[in-house]
């Protein structure tokens, strides 16, 4: 088995939509009412609950949002409806990192690492170096069109900005968690704290 065969292919469908917090508000509420993701998808698209301009965009955004929020535990989904906007943004960033290993790796290996090394910013060149390094094990990255690669980069940075973790100029903003969000993130193994620019330990707190 070669090195490239030892790694699952990255999911790379996060080319648009940003953090999808507003959409998650709607979809999580529907899920807590219906408790079935297939039924939620049907209800949201048929009733256009996301107020999309076209049916195709409604289907696309609904599918993408469900893919992300469905990685959250039921207890986290129940908590979600009671969270402030900042707390929801933190939880949705964690959800994006869980759903997309590429984003999680970039968050942990580049954004958090640069923060801990007191390197205060992240730019396009850092993303490209990260992608070049990962392509040694993930040949699917070499197959991307330049335009798709650029879209992935733009949306990753957009999500970081919407999560309150990066300025538009690329300056890293330390994550300041509420107690309940920190507890939810730290309860995971390994801890989802690793996806954030913070000096908090990533071991599970007992």
Please describe what this structure looks like:
By secondary structure, the chain is mainly alpha-helical. It folds into two domains: 20-70, no CATH class; 85-200, fold of a uncharacterized protein from magnetospirillum magneticum (Orthogonal Bundle). 55% of the residues lie in helices and 0% in strands. It contains nine helices and no strands. Helix 1 (21-34) crosses helix 2 (37-46), helix 2 runs antiparallel to helix 3 and helix 5 (85-99) packs across helix 6 (101-116). The termini are far apart. Mean pLDDT is 92; it is low at 1-5.
Write the layout of secondary structure elements.
Blueprint: H1 21-34, H2 37-46, H3 55-69, H4 74-80, H5 85-99, H6 101-116, H7 124-134, H8 146-162, H9 179-186
Helix pairs in contact: 1-2, 1-3, 2-3, 5-6
Task: Determine and state the CATH class of the largest domain.
Answer: Mainly Alpha
**SS summary, helix count:** 9
Number of strands: 0
Beta-strand content estimate: under 5%
The residue ranges in which pLDDT falls below 50 over 5 or more consecutive positions are 1-5
The count of domains is: 2
* CATH fold label of the largest domain: fold of a uncharacterized protein from magnetospirillum magneticum
- Find the structural class using helix and strand composition: mainly alpha
What's the SSE pattern?
Answer: HHHHHHHHH
Mean pLDDT: 92
Rg (C-alpha, Å): 17 Å
Largest sheet: none
Brief characterization of the structure:
With 206 residues, the chain is an all-alpha fold.
What attributes does this structure have?
mainly alpha; disordered N terminus; single chain; 2 domains; 206 residues; fold of a uncharacterized protein from magnetospirillum magneticum
